[in-house]
Amino acid sequence: MHLGGLAMGLIKYKLGDLIQLCDARNDDLQYGIEDVKGISIQKIFIETKADMTGVSLKPYYLVQPDDFAYVTVTSRNGEKITLAHNTTDNTYIVSSSYVVFSVKDTELLLSDYLFMFFNRSEFDRYSRFNSWGSARETFSWEDMCEIEIDLPPLPIQQKYVDIYSAMLANQQSYECGLEDLKLVCDAYIENLANCEYKKIGDYIERNKNRNQDNKFTVSDVKGFNNDGLFIEPMRLFSGDITTFKIVTKNDFVYNSRINSTIKKLSIVINEGEDLIVSPAYESFRVCRENELSPFYLYLLLQRESFARKVLFNSFGSSTIVFGYDDLSEIEIPVPDFTEQVALANIYSAYKERWGINEKLKAQIKDLCPILMKGSIQEASKTKEA
To answer: Which of 121, 211, 237, 240 has the highest CB neighbour number within 10 Å of its CB?
Structure first.
């Protein structure tokens, strides 16, 4: 199928004629655990979430600078294909279940231009539609090679890649400032080590408010994600919602059922309008707000160090449970209230800037189809002239 759009005068290729498999492996163990990467649906390389205990790294593929890698399985993936481009000077290693490839001839196709092609919702939809399988749907290397693309001349590709790169550099610069703010916040918290520690349960109470009178409707039902944001629920509720929990301003909600790979507790604080959540979630509030700032507590609960305490204090085998009573028993540093507020304000600034950064990243992704279309139109006009 043709994804680039018909454009007179453009040279049409199948991707299989432009890309090649890379099968170099980590046979000599030159690369270690610190070089292992996974890929997110945001199309970036990330630290692996897999348990690497006892895993041999010899079969792992090398992803060298300018290489691409993707996961063939597309089911249960948010309707996106998991693919990334290594734009660094470092070599990564990835699981042998991944597919690693590169551009054959950079005189015909720029790798960055190809990534713009991949980094579009149109490509996500195409790869999902053309995935096959029963238990697991996959988009194979053969499927990838069958894709057709219209290529503008190299100078036009470069022009639109430069626009994309400039936008990306701006976002990454903003992200560096964001990391600096996070370091300030982390350093502040490290200095609290000598504070008095007290049980969380001394300051919180369980939320027992239920939607018994049906004051709230199905449209008020919310879920939440690992970024601490309320979202629309993954499935629609059409039955009884009288047992759903009412979440008011500054109330906390978290999922007591967790997995062993978490790096932070999946928890959210309600800073907006009242809403309702599934009774399967735990919910609580700070009952001594003049002694413990809810936002200071929220900051502590989201840290990786707290996630380690969660795992240590949880129970279960296939499903780990961290209930309200478990949470109540954990001790946290409780500094002077003014210090709590100051730290919470720094963290609030970080979260606000984080939100802006996420919007910038979304804008860049939205820009990709526009740039692709612009390059094709410019190439068409150049040919006609």
So the answer is: 211
- Helices 337-384, 111-118: inter-axial angle, 10-degree rounding: 110
Residue 174 sits at φ, ψ, to 5 deg, of -65, -40
**What single-letter DSSP state applies at residue 119?**
S
d(CA 248, CA 231): 16
List pLDDT tens digits, range 163-202.
999 999 988 888 888 888 888 888 888 888 788 999 999 9
Determine the angle formed by the axes of helices 154-190 and 294-301, rounding to 10 degrees: 120
Question: Phi, psi at residue 347, to the nearest 5°?
Answer: -65, -40
- State how far Cα 243 lies from the chain centre: 31
**Does residue 171 form part of some domain?**
no
Cα 81 to the center of its chain, rounded Å: 13
Distance CA 228, CA 237 (A): 22
Taking only the tens place, the pLDDT of each residue in 30-58 is 999 999 999 998 899 999 988 888 999 99
Cα(first)–Cα(last) distance of the chain, in Å? 29
* CATH at residue 289: 3.90.220.20
Structural domain boundaries enclosing 295: 196-334
Q: Tokens 């309702």, residue?
A: 276
- What pLDDT, on a 0 to 100 scale, did the predictor assign at position 58? 96
Contacts (Cβ under 8 Å, ≥6 apart) of 157: 109, 110, 113, 151, 375
Calculate the alpha carbon distances from 263 to 118, 141, 337 in Å. 29, 32, 27
Distance CA 253, CA 196 (A): 26
Answer yes or no: are the C-beta atoms of 57 and 29 closer than 8 Å.
yes
**Residue 326 clears pLDDT 70, i.e. is over it:** yes
CB 178 within 8 A of CB 40: no
pLDDT at 176: 85
133 and 262 housed in the same domain = no
The overall pTM is greater than 0.70: no
> Please, what's the b/e burial string for 202-241 (b: 16 or more CB within 10 A of its CB; e: otherwise)?
ebbebbebebeeeebeeebbbbbeeebebeeeeeeeeeeb
Same domain? 124 vs 208: no
In this structure, is residue 352 part of a structural domain? no
**Helix, strand, coil percent values for the chain (each to nearest 5):** 40, 20, 40
CA distance 53 to 237: 41
